[in-house]
Amino acid sequence: MGNCLVAQSGGPTAVINATVAGVVKANQLHPYYDKVYGGLNGIEGVLQERFVDLTNMSDEENRILRQTPASALGSCRYKLKRDNTADFEKLFEIFDRYDIETLFYTGGNDSMDTVAALSQYAKDHGIEGHRFVGCPKTVDNDLMLTDHCPGFASAAKFIASTALQTWLDVNVYTRQEVFILETMGRDAGWLAASACLSGIVDLLILPEVPFEEEAFLEQVRKCIAEKNKCYIVISEGCKYADGSYLTAKNAKNDGFGHAILGGAGETLKNILLDAGVTQRAKVQDLSTAQRAFALCQSLTDVTESFQLGMSAHMRSTDGKFTGKMVAIKRKEGEAYDTDYIAVDADQVANYVKSFPSEWILPDYQGITEEAFAYLRPLISGTPVILYENGLPAYVKPYYQR
Amino acid sequence: MGNCLVAQSGGPTAVINATVAGVVKANQLHPYYDKVYGGLNGIEGVLQERFVDLTNMSDEENRILRQTPASALGSCRYKLKRDNTADFEKLFEIFDRYDIETLFYTGGNDSMDTVAALSQYAKDHGIEGHRFVGCPKTVDNDLMLTDHCPGFASAAKFIASTALQTWLDVNVYTRQEVFILETMGRDAGWLAASACLSGIVDLLILPEVPFEEEAFLEQVRKCIAEKNKCYIVISEGCKYADGSYLTAKNAKNDGFGHAILGGAGETLKNILLDAGVTQRAKVQDLSTAQRAFALCQSLTDVTESFQLGMSAHMRSTDGKFTGKMVAIKRKEGEAYDTDYIAVDADQVANYVKSFPSEWILPDYQGITEEAFAYLRPLISGTPVILYENGLPAYVKPYYQR
User: Fold this and answer.
1) pLDDT tens track for B330-363
2) Which residues does chain A have within 8 Å of residue B160's beta carbon, measured at their own beta carbons?
3) CATH of the domain spanning B3-150+297-351, picked from 3.40.50.450, 3.40.50.2300, 3.40.605.10, 1.10.150.20
4) How does pLDDT run across A130-177, given as a tens digit for each residue?
5) Model pTM?
6) Please, what's the b/e burial string for B155-178 (b: 16 or more CB within 10 A of its CB; e: otherwise)?
7) Domain B154-294 adopts which CATH fold?
8) Regarding the domain delimited by A3-150+295-352+382-400, which CATH topology (the fold level of the hierarchy) does it fall under?
9) How many CB pairs under 8 A join A and B?
10) Are residues B168 and A382, on separate chains, in Cβ contact within 8 Å?
């Protein structure tokens, strides 16, 4: 038999490594591939033949890998352009040389595009014997055709926990307080909305609802008049009706042409101060911590991420399984349960799944019961975390070895 | 027998409620006082006779209270001025009317001043039958005469955990990265220094060392040249040699005449960008979360906070125990262990314990082995946290009931 290769792309999450751990473990349970290579720094490192051998990972390392946040194999933002024939030729040459039958690629939109592009290239050129399988991950939860994305729930749990705990802090004084919590999420409001799980959010600003300054200020005034406090959650990607970001002034681009967001909380604070609705406001921008805080892993999330990796491996033993992403489907019924299904990667790539508008209450008042019913099971359960000297044990990144 | 009153002051911590839980539990084990009142919003609420009865708190509530961050009784920044006779007269009138023998007051510098002032007033005016006992708490760890302060270690654990986990995130790309983590700590570097427990900090900026821009930039350049990354931790209170804060531009005052700090990370980022040592830098300001994140409680910390409350109660049954703060003394020897001791509150009030200069390495290189030996045991152990619907269970604040 040949070998397989697993690599990670895009922004990391608190459970992204569990998918890699799942692929590795599946191959130990059923050694279909002779070797499980880890590709360092995504497709960029694959092009440079930067591989590590994960085949014989110990069970202890596998377990600690599952609680290690961020991409242990390193990541990249390199986008395989479909007209860059040189890259494709080089990749297939490398796949042949290392006898790589299957590439498992974890990532978001752009990574699914890579999966689709490689699969299409092979088909167009009559190249056989290679399979390309996508594994979703993104804290933003904005991928199509999957009920949710591994990584989202743990970030949601961290956000809701932080909202709850900072709210307790914000309330201790009798004085007026306005607190602004800024979350990630890009153009989708999933992460910001998840803060509502804490039950303490007064006002919620999502990218899906055009921000109307006067209407919002009115809600803040009302809230302060009522209880002298106002706890606001704002998504980094919130926009005015004309489509410009609140943070437009600071906007730059990352390598993919995506705007670099962040700063929405500070911008909102200045709007509030300028309007005179409050004399003081605190901002907590959760920044990198929200996608890296594995101490807040949801047991549901880390389990699903691991199982999804196993499912991807097991499905890949069918010689025709290519150009697919393994997705999560929520079963019908009262109790939360899921199936793993296969969807076409090109149906996922380059689309964005927004937070459903019918789940958003008017006047920045938060989210509906349907939204709560969707979100609640995702953050349930807490894995047993292993510690070393008082801090979470972690696997030394493979790209640093 | 008479009653006792417990109240909380100053900025909250992740374990401040454990001291209250300790006082309550001690009185259940030995009902020396008929009633344990909780005073809402510190001395400010006591002056308004805003009391709750905590005497018969259930064991379950006691346990959840210990994992509830922020002051469950509410807090205040009201400073009892020694020349404000009206306040003192009113307080003693209230103590008499509610038959309050002992006031337990948790807080920092200013709260210890309140304890000392009330005790002194009673002495000066020949008032007998009232005792005033301070219980230290502050994430800043800057109180004299105690080895450390309850609340510090849990914040330190959160900071070190976040440093470790965000560092893993920061390293996933091959590109150059500068990451700046900003911590609280006011004029003392304890919290910032504790980030070094993660083992990943490249450069550390403490308030105890005058900040020299050029010398620091040189270190950043060196670090980037060496590994293309630089992880910097900066304390909110860092200053130039002339004593002005890095954040001086934004400085305001709180009610106590203390500068409102914060923003040191952003300021440093701009210094780095302006100097051209890097093209990009990310800032994570831990803000309120670092003192509120009870999911990162250190077991050592929460246990000590609880035991300190019990010790305060038990000592107060000696009719002469007043004007004292219960402090923590580290025992000699290899294994970490502590004694609870009594110190004079007026020896604590209005002093600041800085991070020892002999524990600071030159050139922003972090801290010495002695510092690690001091810090390491404080963050050890993780309590079992009770959850409800995927989020940490908490006690509804008494000031909201």
Assistant:
1) 999 999 999 999 999 999 998 999 999 999 999 9
2) 390-391
3) 3.40.50.450
4) 999 999 999 999 999 999 999 999 999 999 999 999 999 999 999 999
5) 0.96
6) bbbbbbbbbbbbbbbbbbbbeebb
7) Rossmann fold (3.40.50)
8) Rossmann fold (3.40.50)
9) 184
10) no
